[in-house]
Structure formats: C-alpha cells, structure tokens
Amino acid sequence: MRRFLLILIPYAWLLALFLVPFAIVFKMALSDIAVARPPYFPQFDWAEGIWVFLAELDFENFVWLTEDDLYWKAYLSSLKIAAISTLLALLVGYPMAYGMARAPEQWRPTLMMLVILPFWTSFLIRVYAWMGILSNEGFLNQFLLWTGVISAPLTILNTNWAVYIGIVYTYLPFMILPIYAALERMDGALIEAAEDLGCSRLSAFWLVTFPLSRPGVIAGSFLVFIPVLGEFVIPSLLGGSDTLMIGKVLWEEFFSNRDWPVASAVAVVLLLLLIVPIVLFQRNQQKQQEADR
Amino acid sequence: MSSPEFAPWDDPSAQPLIQFKNVTKRFGSFTAIDDLAVDIYEREFFALLGASGCGKTTMMRMLAGFETPTSGQIMLAGQEIGAVPPNLRSVNMMFQSYALFPHLSVWDNIAFGLRRERMAKDLIKARVEEMLRLTRLEKFSGRKPHQISGGQRQRVALARSLAKAPKLLLLDEPLGALDKKLRQETQFELMDIQEKTGTTFVIVTHDQEEAMTVASRVAVMDEGQIIQIATPDKIYEAPNSVYVADFIGDVNIITGTARPNGAQQYDIHWSEGHAPLCAQSVSTFSDGQSCHLAIRPEEVLISAEKPENADNTMQGKVLDIAYLGNISTYHVELPNGTVVKAQIANTRRISRRAFTWEDPVWLSWAASAGVLLAK
Amino acid sequence: MIRMSWFNTVSLTLGFAFLYIPMLILILFSFNESKLVTVWAGFSTKWYKELFQNEAFLSAAWVTLKVAVLSSTFATVLGTMAALVLVRAGRFWGRTLFSGMIYAPLVMPEVITGLSLLLLFIGIGLDRGVLTIVLAHTTFAMCYVSVVVSSRLVSFDRSLEEAALDLGCTPLDAFRLVTLPIIAPAVISGWLLAFTLSLDDLVIASFTSGPAATTLPIKIFSAVRLGVSPEINALSTLMIAIVAVGVISASLVTKRQVLRRQRDVQAAQ
User: Fold this and answer.
1) Which regions span the lipid bilayer (chain A) (predicted)?
2) Are B271 and B352 in a shared domain?
3) CA-CA distance, B83 to C60, in Å (whole number)?
4) What is the pTM of this model?
5) C157–B96: do the CB atoms touch at under 8 Å?
C-alpha cells in the first residue's frame, strides 16, 4: 500500500503535467487555426461524440510545413548553428578541460568551481552581458579599434557570429565537465608508458589521451547540441532578423501569429528531429556505464 | 570447559530455540535454500560455514526477517516467525558492513534500538553504558563512526545489536573486514561476550578457522543444503563427505574400491602396481564399492628409511616443500604420479633440513589415521 | 609537483578570461554614471537606487521568489519520491514509461514544454498566474531533483536501512531516521538546483504566466530586447553577487567538511 502510493503520486503528476500536455500538442498539431477564442478548430464536443471530432483532424499543418520554405530552412539552419557551435565549444572546451586535468591536484576543486559558477548564474544575464560587448560601439569594437586591428567597427551583434559566441559562452560548462571527468581519471602512467615505447608528446596525445577522452567528448557534444537545437533566448537576443532557429520560429508562430496548430506542428517536428541525437547520446552513456562496470 | 558439558543437541528432551522445518527459498528459478531442516538450541554459538553462494546468507536473512521462506516454517521459541517483519522480531543482526548510522554518534547508535521501544530515558542510559563497558568503548561514546578504527566500529556494531537483549543474535561475517591479527583477538572477545550475555549466536562465515574457533557447532553448507552439522572436532576428524573433508583444513583424498578384510577393516585397491591400503572404518562398505580415503597431512609420517610395523607404507620423492615456520608441508610424488602431502612440526631446528627436493622418502600412516568416505 | 606546461597555462587563462570578462564588464558598467553602457563616465550607484524604486521590478522579483520557493519545495518532495521509485520500487507496470517521463524533460526544448503546459492549462480552463508557473516549474524541476537524488540513492548502503528495521523501526521510521538524514546533502542540492532553475527560467514562465504574474526573467527579457540599460546591469550584478556568495561559501563549507573528515579518519587509524 505504501509502495503503491509512493509510485502513484509522482507517476500521476508526470502523467497529468507531462504526458497529457504532449497528447494535447499532438492533437493541436492536427487541428486547424480559427478566428475564435481559443483560436483553433475543432473543439471537442461531447454531444457529437469522439468520431466526429477525430474526423475533423488532419495533417494539413505538416503539409504546410513542407510547402512554406521558412520552416525547413529554420530546421536546417538550427541544425547548422547547433553543429557549428558544438564544434566551437569543443575547440574552446577541450584545451580547458585538458589544462584542468593536468593542473596540480589541489587546484582542481577551485578550477571546477570556477567552471560551474557561471552555470548557477542566470542564463539570461550571461546572454545579456554579450549584448554590451558585441554591439557596434561595444567593448570589443572599442578594444579592436584602440589596438588598431580594425579601422571601422565590425558588425557582430545581430549576426550568426554573435549567436555562436553566445552559445559557446553559455554551454561551455556542459562541454568541459564530461571531458574533464574522462581526462581526470585517466592514469598518468599511460602517457609515460607511451613515451617509454617511443611516442613523442604529440603522438602520445593522439594515440592515447584523445581516444581515452572520446566518451567525454561525445557526451559533451551531445549535451551542447541537443539543447541548442531548440534554443530560443540566444537567437532572439543576439541574433539578427535573418538568424533562423526553430525555437524562435515556434515562439513567433505562437505569440505573434497566434497560430497554435502550426506552432504545435513545429514542436512535433522538432521533437522528431531530437530523437536521433538523444538515442545516440543514450547509447554512448550506456556504453560508458558498461565499460565502467 | 566446565562440566557438565554443554551439548543440548544430544539431549532428546531439550527444546530447540530455532527450528527450520523443510524450509525452501527460491529467487525466480534459483533455489537458494533447498528443503532445509535444522535445530539450534539456546545459548548455542552456531556457525554456518560455506563458500559464497551456498545459501548461508539467505538462511540468516530469513532469520532476521529480510526474506520470507517460499515454503516451510521457521520457528523461534515455538512460534512461527516466517511472516513476522524484522522490526517485530526479538532477533537482532550484526551486519557485515556493520551498517553503523554515519550521522549518529556511537552512543546514539547503541541507543537507537532502545529508543524504538520507547524505553525510559534513564533505563536507556543505563543499558547503553552497560553495553559500552562490555565492549570497552566508554571513551568513544561521543564519536561518529568515521572517527573510530575498524576494530572499534566492529565493537559498536556488536554493542548496538546486543543492546536490545535479543533472544537470538545473527552475525554476518562479523570479522571479515578486520586484518588477521585483530580477527584472532576479536574471536576470543566474541566468545567471551557470548558467554557473559548468554545470548544465542548464529554466525555466518566462509572462514573455516573462524568457525572452528568460536562455534559450539558448525553447519557446513553447499548449494542450499546442509552437508554436515557437528561440533568442530567431529567435523575435522570425522567428516561425512569428501566435500566437508576438503572444505575444512588440508586433506589427501585417495579414491579406490573397498574390500572387507576383518571386522571394520578394509583393503583399498587404488592403483595398479601399488599395494592395497589398509583402513579402519565404522561405516560399512560392500565388496567392490568405490570409496575415498581422506587422510590429513599431519597424520602422514615421512622418513628416510622404510618404517617398521606401519600399516601403510609407500615410497616417493620430494616434489615441493612449503616452510611455514612452525610446520613444513612436504609434497611427495609417488611413482604413479599421485602427490601426497605430509606435514611435520618443526620442533627442532636441526631437523629442518632433513629432506630436500628430489630426495627419496618413505610415507606411512596407521590404518586408523584416515576416514573412509562413500561420497 | 608537476609544473604546468605553458600550453595548459595559456589555455586555462584564456578560457577563464572568456568565461569571466563579460561578467566583470557587466558589473563594472552597473556603477557607471552615464546612461550609456559602453562609455565610462565615472563611478555612481544611482542605477541601484533607481532599481530599488522601480515598482515593476520589485514586484516581479517578489513573484519570482515566491514561485521559486514553492516550486522547488514541491519539486524536491516529488523528485525524491520519484528517485525512490526509480531506485527502489523494483518492477511495476509502466516502469519504462515512468523513467522515460523522468528523463525526457531534461532534454526537452523549453519551448515545447512551455507550449504543451500552456495548452493543458487552457484546455482545463485554469487561469494563468502564479499557480500555473509553480505547476510548470515543479514538473520540470522534479526531474532534475530525481536525477540528483537517485544518483545518491544508488550508492546508498541498503544494510543501513535493514539495520534500522532490525532494531525495531517501521519502514517509515527507517526512512525518516536513517535514509533521509544520510541523503540530505543530495536532497538539499536538488532543492538548490530546482530553485535556481526556477529563478532562471524565461521560456516556460513566458508560456505559463498570465498578465497578473510577471516573473523577473520575463521583465528583464522584455527590457533587454530594447537594448542594454545600466539598470539591468545593476540588477544582474546583484543576482551574480548573490549566486557567487552562495556557491563559494557552499564549496568552502564542503571543502572544510571533507578536510575534517579526512583528518578524523586518519586520526582513528
């Protein structure tokens, strides 16, 4: 009885506030927009029964998504932005994780804390901080003009570059931590053994260190890639009007166009898009756990 | 030992404290305990001995109430307890990991069970202090478990499980986490405490030396069944099977066929070209029945010359010598390739190098030295 | 001791500069006299004064705090229960679905979670306000809490609970007197995580809040959409300061505890 209640309470909560809402999104994706309140059709009517209601549902919105090139461009552009910024985060994060793992042991907790600290501070504020830096008269341009690298201010804010910088900045801890975890538990004697067997420092890195840190690299990359696909705040604050990301499109479809059915269809497709990387990520984690055992 | 000897298991009128009546426990398709019946008496120090996976831990967990039998009955003082939850049994357990509550002090750990009984505060205080005295932990009562050593933790665990004065105390590998020297000291302490409190102890262990040292009776288990229950000396000197003989101590097993030769006398034909061995046995074997002769290495004599008047003699050469300080074990290879172990106490320094590798030697033993086993 | 190679020193220096300089600039310009956030015109705290007179921000901050405290508390209770179910309950009908529902919100884009909850609230005719934000935040934060707590429960020595039962505890007492005090650090960090997630959340709150309840992130977002302002810098500085003090002191306390524990363990041998 006690066990039953323990299972029932969180189960019922999640069913009611996670699964049922999803079912509603799916149903909404099959409805049509209407000039009404709430702005969609059909409404469920007990009098007519379930079959009449079901007959009104159709896949028109999904057809619409393929016809208007805004949507598939937004999907492709989200994939591109997520891929590029994941790669950039890896390029910035790997050397940092490596440096942390090779730092003297008594520094490591402090370095860890320094990586995690930004994660606890507001996401919005961290994105906002770059608005002042990247604008035309912003700190970065002032600095570059002062050093004489450039003669006219660069336009960075409201371009994809600002989005990349913002994503790398906010998601960097997610990249660093798994790589650091993989590097930190690596036995230092392995490198010595490789050098003893005739490797140079660089080839020891490529032949031993990097392959051993690969699970961390894969985990970190997915931890950046997956949430960035649906990102909304960064493209809307740092990106320009031509920065297309699907999260932003969904938001505008819902709040500006008040087209709930199309917004729901966009959400359904985004979810389908996410399934592949999530399954791959899950498999990587499982392999890791089995290897640890 | 004081007289009269403590042996309630030989007294047909004695009432057992615990009775397992045809108890079977299955986990899915795996049978952990197979139709087991055993009686354990009050004030006994009963040891369950066996390799890991033999079912001894399952048996103990059924006594504690963490597992319920699939079939059969477990009786405690005449009451069936198979379905009684652990918190309502007057049985306490000392866990292998000690399971001391890390957030509570030594004092609070020991008082934990008493507080559950809503005992009066001053009674709790008196009882905890008594337990601290018994286990010599008075100085550490305010410390947390991580602030004391492994041996002290072991004593806290013992004090905590004894505090409620249970009818039965279960000890799951109680000394497994201690190093060898401390373990030996603690064994005697444990026996002392058992005697002082008069509690019935059931101990689970895989260490045969430990079982032999502490227990009044030992049950050797294998594959969910009890192979033999007897006092330590009987288990060692009169094992009922090759499994028990091999499990307890070191043994030479020679397999052959028996041929009766007088009252309780048998000739054992075991190898072409070797004279039959001569052995005494109280159990009877039919003519031509296959049998195993178990001889402890310390019963085998080793000499340079062929001994006179020995029941069994054979020649071989020294293959290996294990010098253990107080004793040496010689591995002697017979012409047919069989290796027989012989043990000699190193009483005199001078005799230490009596034999060396490759030396031809004679082995001998008396007809009454070995035990003849059917299986 | 190993000396740091120049490569590691450079990569760490540049990396941490990248992480921290933007925030330092943000903090610096919150004390700027000028309205312009990019030109330094002398030290002033006037933006802080202005911030504390801004009724809209203050009331949004109050709503945010209320939502965060309520939702993180509910999320901690539900998340701990869910963790117990995941680690302890064994097999039951729909277990795969249950664990799927725990892990899915962790990777779900916030826009989808927000949208789906909004459609639910409209569907059942629940007026949007503090209650709906609390429900939404509780739902996604409980998943984070259950991940944190279940990773602690997995390494929890079951024999401690068995010992409590053996000494006369009912199962509920064993949980209250033994399990809960031992897993408390994980439960507390779960609560803190849920609290921060709730304080931070813009997207889900935007979907599920009504005109009556505006949270601080929503307020900040609509303000910064129009461009940078020193007042937002001042607000950000305060938020960063609170978090920094919290995180640093928490890590110092943990470090001291770990050190003391090591010393105790050594002394006991």
Assistant:
1) 74-98, 110-131, 161-183, 204-229, 260-281
2) yes
3) 58
4) 0.85
5) no
